[in-house]
Amino acid sequence: MKKRVLWASLLILSSMSIKADEFIGIIKPIHDVKISVPLDGVIKKILLKEGSAVKQKQTILELKNYLQQLEVNRRKIIWKDRSKLNAALKNRKIQKSLLNSTRKLYNQTQSVSRDALQILESKYYILNGEIQMQRENEKKEKVEYQIARQLLSKYTVKSPIKGIVTEVSLQEGEWAKAGKPFIRVVNADVCYIDINIDEAYSSQLKVGNNIDFTVKTKSIMANKKGKVTFISPVADMASGLVRVKIEFSNIKNRIIPGLSATININNLSKNSKESK
Fold first, then answer.
1. Of the candidates 21, 27, 30, which has an alpha carbon nearest to the alpha carbon of residue 263?
2. Which of 25, 42, 161, 262 could bridge to 193 as Cys pair (CB 3.0-4.6 Å)?
3. How many whole angstroms separate alpha carbon 30 and alpha carbon 191?
4. Ramachandran sector of residue 225 (left: φ over 0; alpha: ψ -120 to 50; beta: rest)
5. Domain extents in the chain
6. What is the CATH T-level fold of the domain 18-52+179-275, as seen in this structure?
7. Does residue 265 contact residue 23 with C-beta atoms inside 8 Å?
8. In this structure, what is the dihedral angle of CA atoms 11, 18, 215, 243, given to the nearest 10 degrees?
9. Which residues make Cβ contacts (< 8 Å) with residue 204, sequence separation at least 6?
Protein backbone atom coordinates (compact mmCIF):
# COMPACT_ATOMS: atom_id res chain seq x y z
CA MET A 1 0.00 0.00 0.00
CA LYS A 2 2.84 2.38 0.94
CA LYS A 3 4.65 1.58 -2.32
CA ARG A 4 1.52 2.38 -4.32
CA VAL A 5 1.05 5.71 -2.56
CA LEU A 6 4.74 6.57 -3.10
CA TRP A 7 4.50 5.66 -6.80
CA ALA A 8 1.37 7.78 -7.22
CA SER A 9 3.07 10.70 -5.51
CA LEU A 10 6.15 10.46 -7.74
CA LEU A 11 4.01 10.25 -10.88
CA ILE A 12 1.99 13.27 -9.86
CA LEU A 13 5.14 15.24 -9.02
CA SER A 14 6.80 14.29 -12.32
CA SER A 15 3.84 15.59 -14.32
CA MET A 16 2.45 18.30 -12.05
CA SER A 17 2.04 21.73 -13.58
CA ILE A 18 4.67 24.39 -13.09
CA LYS A 19 1.88 26.87 -13.41
CA ALA A 20 -1.85 26.24 -13.65
CA ASP A 21 -1.55 25.64 -17.40
CA GLU A 22 1.91 24.04 -17.80
CA PHE A 23 3.12 20.44 -17.57
CA ILE A 24 6.57 18.89 -17.84
CA GLY A 25 7.38 16.04 -20.21
CA ILE A 26 10.51 14.14 -21.22
CA ILE A 27 12.04 14.42 -24.70
CA LYS A 28 12.86 11.10 -26.37
CA PRO A 29 14.28 10.25 -29.82
CA ILE A 30 11.79 8.55 -32.11
CA HIS A 31 14.54 6.14 -33.23
CA ASP A 32 16.57 4.63 -30.39
CA VAL A 33 17.69 1.06 -31.08
CA LYS A 34 19.73 -1.37 -29.04
CA ILE A 35 21.55 -3.94 -31.15
CA SER A 36 22.87 -7.40 -30.37
CA VAL A 37 24.50 -10.11 -32.47
CA PRO A 38 22.21 -12.79 -33.96
CA LEU A 39 24.59 -15.56 -32.84
CA ASP A 40 27.36 -16.07 -30.30
CA GLY A 41 30.89 -15.23 -31.38
CA VAL A 42 34.16 -13.41 -30.80
CA ILE A 43 34.36 -9.80 -31.97
CA LYS A 44 36.90 -9.59 -34.79
CA LYS A 45 36.71 -5.88 -35.63
CA ILE A 46 34.78 -2.80 -34.49
CA LEU A 47 34.45 -0.43 -37.44
CA LEU A 48 32.52 2.40 -35.74
CA LYS A 49 33.08 3.75 -32.25
CA GLU A 50 30.91 5.78 -29.91
CA GLY A 51 30.08 9.17 -31.42
CA SER A 52 30.44 7.95 -35.01
CA ALA A 53 27.75 8.80 -37.55
CA VAL A 54 26.30 5.67 -39.12
CA LYS A 55 24.19 5.14 -42.23
CA GLN A 56 21.35 2.67 -42.47
CA LYS A 57 22.69 -0.84 -43.20
CA GLN A 58 26.28 0.31 -42.59
CA THR A 59 28.50 -2.27 -40.89
CA ILE A 60 29.31 -1.53 -37.25
CA LEU A 61 31.31 -4.64 -36.33
CA GLU A 62 32.33 -8.09 -37.53
CA LEU A 63 32.59 -11.41 -35.69
CA LYS A 64 35.26 -13.98 -36.44
CA ASN A 65 33.90 -15.98 -39.37
CA TYR A 66 36.77 -18.07 -40.77
CA LEU A 67 35.00 -21.44 -40.57
CA GLN A 68 31.76 -20.09 -41.99
CA GLN A 69 33.67 -18.48 -44.87
CA LEU A 70 35.21 -21.87 -45.66
CA GLU A 71 31.72 -23.40 -45.61
CA VAL A 72 30.50 -20.80 -48.09
CA ASN A 73 33.42 -21.56 -50.40
CA ARG A 74 32.78 -25.31 -50.12
CA ARG A 75 29.10 -24.93 -50.95
CA LYS A 76 29.93 -22.73 -53.93
CA ILE A 77 32.36 -25.32 -55.34
CA ILE A 78 29.76 -28.08 -54.96
CA TRP A 79 27.10 -25.95 -56.64
CA LYS A 80 29.35 -24.93 -59.57
CA ASP A 81 30.65 -28.48 -60.14
CA ARG A 82 28.84 -29.70 -63.30
CA SER A 83 31.20 -32.55 -64.13
CA LYS A 84 28.63 -35.30 -63.43
CA LEU A 85 25.88 -33.49 -65.32
CA ASN A 86 28.11 -32.77 -68.33
CA ALA A 87 29.26 -36.40 -68.44
CA ALA A 88 25.65 -37.59 -68.28
CA LEU A 89 24.63 -35.23 -71.09
CA LYS A 90 27.44 -36.52 -73.33
CA ASN A 91 26.58 -40.09 -72.47
CA ARG A 92 22.92 -39.46 -73.34
CA LYS A 93 23.90 -38.07 -76.72
CA ILE A 94 25.84 -41.26 -77.49
CA GLN A 95 23.07 -43.43 -76.07
CA LYS A 96 20.43 -41.65 -78.17
CA SER A 97 22.45 -42.12 -81.38
CA LEU A 98 22.89 -45.83 -80.59
CA LEU A 99 19.19 -46.21 -79.80
CA ASN A 100 18.13 -44.51 -83.05
CA SER A 101 20.43 -46.75 -85.10
CA THR A 102 19.20 -49.89 -83.36
CA ARG A 103 15.56 -48.88 -83.74
CA LYS A 104 16.13 -48.23 -87.47
CA LEU A 105 17.70 -51.66 -87.94
CA TYR A 106 14.90 -53.31 -86.02
CA ASN A 107 12.20 -51.56 -88.08
CA GLN A 108 13.88 -52.10 -91.47
CA THR A 109 15.67 -55.47 -91.31
CA GLN A 110 14.89 -56.85 -87.85
CA SER A 111 18.57 -57.83 -87.63
CA VAL A 112 18.41 -57.01 -83.93
CA SER A 113 16.01 -58.52 -81.45
CA ARG A 114 13.15 -56.71 -79.76
CA ASP A 115 14.74 -57.45 -76.37
CA ALA A 116 18.00 -55.75 -77.38
CA LEU A 117 16.05 -52.66 -78.50
CA GLN A 118 14.11 -52.54 -75.24
CA ILE A 119 17.31 -52.79 -73.21
CA LEU A 120 18.74 -49.76 -75.05
CA GLU A 121 15.47 -47.85 -74.57
CA SER A 122 15.53 -48.66 -70.86
CA LYS A 123 19.12 -47.43 -70.52
CA TYR A 124 18.21 -44.21 -72.36
CA TYR A 125 15.23 -43.51 -70.09
CA ILE A 126 17.27 -44.26 -66.97
CA LEU A 127 19.94 -41.86 -68.20
CA ASN A 128 17.30 -39.15 -68.72
CA GLY A 129 16.19 -39.68 -65.13
CA GLU A 130 19.76 -39.33 -63.87
CA ILE A 131 20.18 -36.07 -65.78
CA GLN A 132 16.97 -34.70 -64.30
CA MET A 133 18.14 -35.74 -60.84
CA GLN A 134 21.48 -33.97 -61.41
CA ARG A 135 19.64 -30.79 -62.41
CA GLU A 136 17.44 -30.95 -59.31
CA ASN A 137 20.54 -31.53 -57.16
CA GLU A 138 22.08 -28.45 -58.74
CA LYS A 139 19.06 -26.40 -57.57
CA LYS A 140 19.39 -27.83 -54.05
CA GLU A 141 23.12 -27.08 -53.99
CA LYS A 142 22.43 -23.49 -55.04
CA VAL A 143 19.94 -23.11 -52.17
CA GLU A 144 22.44 -24.62 -49.70
CA TYR A 145 25.06 -22.14 -50.95
CA GLN A 146 22.61 -19.25 -50.43
CA ILE A 147 21.84 -20.51 -46.91
CA ALA A 148 25.56 -20.61 -46.13
CA ARG A 149 25.92 -17.02 -47.38
CA GLN A 150 23.01 -15.89 -45.22
CA LEU A 151 24.61 -17.51 -42.18
CA LEU A 152 27.87 -15.76 -43.02
CA SER A 153 26.06 -12.40 -43.14
CA LYS A 154 24.99 -12.94 -39.51
CA TYR A 155 28.63 -12.55 -38.50
CA THR A 156 28.36 -8.90 -39.57
CA VAL A 157 26.34 -6.42 -37.49
CA LYS A 158 24.76 -3.54 -39.43
CA SER A 159 22.80 -0.56 -38.21
CA PRO A 160 19.04 -0.79 -38.93
CA ILE A 161 18.78 3.03 -38.90
CA LYS A 162 20.71 6.18 -39.74
CA GLY A 163 21.99 7.92 -36.64
CA ILE A 164 24.80 8.22 -34.11
CA VAL A 165 26.47 5.32 -32.31
CA THR A 166 26.02 6.25 -28.65
CA GLU A 167 27.19 3.04 -26.97
CA VAL A 168 29.52 0.11 -27.71
CA SER A 169 30.04 -1.78 -24.46
CA LEU A 170 32.30 -4.59 -25.77
CA GLN A 171 35.79 -4.55 -27.29
CA GLU A 172 37.57 -6.46 -30.04
CA GLY A 173 38.42 -9.98 -28.92
CA GLU A 174 35.57 -10.17 -26.41
CA TRP A 175 32.77 -12.74 -26.57
CA ALA A 176 29.44 -11.38 -27.79
CA LYS A 177 26.34 -13.25 -26.69
CA ALA A 178 23.34 -13.50 -28.99
CA GLY A 179 20.32 -11.51 -27.84
CA LYS A 180 22.27 -9.36 -25.36
CA PRO A 181 22.35 -5.74 -26.64
CA PHE A 182 25.71 -3.98 -26.43
CA ILE A 183 25.39 -1.40 -29.22
CA ARG A 184 23.05 1.59 -29.20
CA VAL A 185 22.24 3.81 -32.17
CA VAL A 186 20.12 6.95 -31.81
CA ASN A 187 18.61 9.21 -34.46
CA ALA A 188 17.45 12.45 -32.86
CA ASP A 189 16.42 14.18 -36.11
CA VAL A 190 12.83 13.51 -35.02
CA CYS A 191 11.92 13.43 -31.32
CA TYR A 192 8.77 13.23 -29.27
CA ILE A 193 7.68 14.48 -25.87
CA ASP A 194 6.32 11.85 -23.52
CA ILE A 195 4.05 13.66 -21.09
CA ASN A 196 1.25 12.97 -18.62
CA ILE A 197 -1.45 15.66 -18.49
CA ASP A 198 -4.75 16.18 -16.77
CA GLU A 199 -7.80 14.62 -18.43
CA ALA A 200 -9.45 18.03 -18.59
CA TYR A 201 -6.81 19.06 -21.12
CA SER A 202 -6.22 15.75 -22.89
CA SER A 203 -9.93 15.47 -23.69
CA GLN A 204 -9.57 18.58 -25.87
CA LEU A 205 -6.89 16.91 -27.99
CA LYS A 206 -7.00 14.67 -31.03
CA VAL A 207 -4.23 12.79 -32.80
CA GLY A 208 -2.90 15.13 -35.48
CA ASN A 209 -3.36 18.36 -33.48
CA ASN A 210 -0.52 20.90 -33.82
CA ILE A 211 1.06 21.90 -30.50
CA ASP A 212 3.31 24.81 -29.48
CA PHE A 213 5.68 24.11 -26.61
CA THR A 214 8.84 25.42 -25.00
CA VAL A 215 12.02 23.48 -24.24
CA LYS A 216 13.88 24.90 -21.27
CA THR A 217 17.36 23.82 -20.15
CA LYS A 218 20.28 25.55 -18.44
CA SER A 219 21.81 26.48 -21.79
CA ILE A 220 18.88 26.75 -24.19
CA MET A 221 15.28 27.87 -24.43
CA ALA A 222 13.56 27.10 -27.70
CA ASN A 223 10.00 27.42 -28.93
CA LYS A 224 9.00 24.38 -30.99
CA LYS A 225 6.01 23.14 -32.96
CA GLY A 226 4.91 19.53 -32.77
CA LYS A 227 2.06 17.18 -33.58
CA VAL A 228 0.09 14.87 -31.32
CA THR A 229 0.81 11.28 -32.39
CA PHE A 230 -0.65 9.34 -29.45
CA ILE A 231 -3.25 9.85 -26.74
CA SER A 232 -3.70 7.04 -24.26
CA PRO A 233 -7.28 5.72 -24.20
CA VAL A 234 -6.95 5.16 -20.43
CA ALA A 235 -5.83 7.36 -17.55
CA ASP A 236 -3.44 6.29 -14.82
CA MET A 237 -5.57 4.87 -12.00
CA ALA A 238 -3.44 6.44 -9.27
CA SER A 239 -2.96 9.98 -10.62
CA GLY A 240 -5.79 10.41 -13.12
CA LEU A 241 -3.29 11.71 -15.70
CA VAL A 242 -3.36 10.75 -19.38
CA ARG A 243 -0.22 9.89 -21.37
CA VAL A 244 0.29 11.93 -24.55
CA LYS A 245 3.08 11.85 -27.17
CA ILE A 246 3.96 14.94 -29.21
CA GLU A 247 6.34 14.53 -32.16
CA PHE A 248 8.55 17.33 -33.51
CA SER A 249 11.45 17.92 -35.92
CA ASN A 250 14.95 18.25 -34.47
CA ILE A 251 17.04 18.24 -37.65
CA LYS A 252 19.81 20.45 -36.26
CA ASN A 253 19.88 18.35 -33.07
CA ARG A 254 19.58 21.47 -30.93
CA ILE A 255 17.44 19.61 -28.42
CA ILE A 256 19.16 16.77 -26.58
CA PRO A 257 16.88 13.79 -25.86
CA GLY A 258 16.47 13.10 -22.16
CA LEU A 259 15.83 16.74 -21.28
CA SER A 260 12.50 18.01 -19.99
CA ALA A 261 10.09 20.12 -22.03
CA THR A 262 7.48 22.55 -20.75
CA ILE A 263 4.07 22.37 -22.42
CA ASN A 264 1.83 25.39 -22.24
CA ILE A 265 -1.71 24.05 -21.99
CA ASN A 266 -3.34 27.33 -23.10
CA ASN A 267 -1.51 27.15 -26.42
CA LEU A 268 -2.25 23.45 -26.62
CA SER A 269 -5.98 24.02 -26.14
CA LYS A 270 -6.01 26.89 -28.63
CA ASN A 271 -4.23 24.92 -31.32
CA SER A 272 -6.39 21.85 -30.78
CA LYS A 273 -9.52 23.96 -31.42
CA GLU A 274 -7.97 25.49 -34.55
CA SER A 275 -7.19 22.05 -36.00
CA LYS A 276 -10.75 20.76 -35.56
1. 21
2. 25
3. 5
4. beta
5. 18-52+179-275, 66-153
6. Elongation Factor Tu (Ef-tu); domain 3 (2.40.30)
7. yes
8. 30
9. 268, 269, 272, 273
